[in-house]
Amino acid sequence: MKPQPPPIQGDGVAKKSRAAKASRREMLKVLYVLLALASTPFLYYIFFDLPPKFSLQINSAEGLDAVAAAAAAQPLSTIVNMTLHASNRRAPGRCYRHGEAVVRYAGFTVAAGRTRVFCVGARDALDVPVVAWADGVTLPNEVHDRMAAEQRACSVELEVDVKLFDRESEMPTWMWCKVTTQEAEPSDVTPCRVFATQNWASDIAPRWMQ
Prior knowledge:
Layout: H1 9-48, E1 53-62, E2 76-87, E3 94-105, E4 108-115, E5 118-120, E6 125-137, H2 141-152, E7 156-166, E8 173-181, E9 190-191, E10 193-195, H3 199-202
Antiparallel strand pairs: 1-2, 1-9, 2-6, 3-4, 3-5, 3-7, 7-8, 8-10
Keywords: Membrane, Transmembrane, Transmembrane helix
Protein name: Late embryogenesis abundant protein LEA-2 subgroup domain-containing protein
């Protein structure tokens, strides 16, 4: 019987090396799958259950347009008509029980009002009329003079703080809008900064998701 040659030691080492590499690849595949499963709810929350977007337009600001002709000590009565543009970027609809809007100039409140109950459908948008008003508004002399100068230049910068109460949550949605009025014409539609838990990351979502 012909003797068999002894096994080459290098072949065994190579087989063990290939087996170890294959095992590592399988472990990496399992880790990738587990990571994908674990991150799916987070990615859905950030990119698909996107927070709403809002913008604001001031249609008219009665009373404020009389500042330039009024004395600094004379109280003002104001009525500010606005349109809140609400955009719902998630699949379910959103409903809001009510809300509040405060119009400020240089940090001083010049009008306040409430929003009505409204709902925005899935992946839909809605224009919500808002009326804010006030009686007996008085401004410090320097603030009055500043507004009067801006009115003569046909450009008055107002800040609008809006708080909406979602039907699904006790936490309100806060937003801050800076709007520049232009004489008797409606202002441009200005995006609002929304303070919500998702907004810090949702803006990096692809445009087709928004």
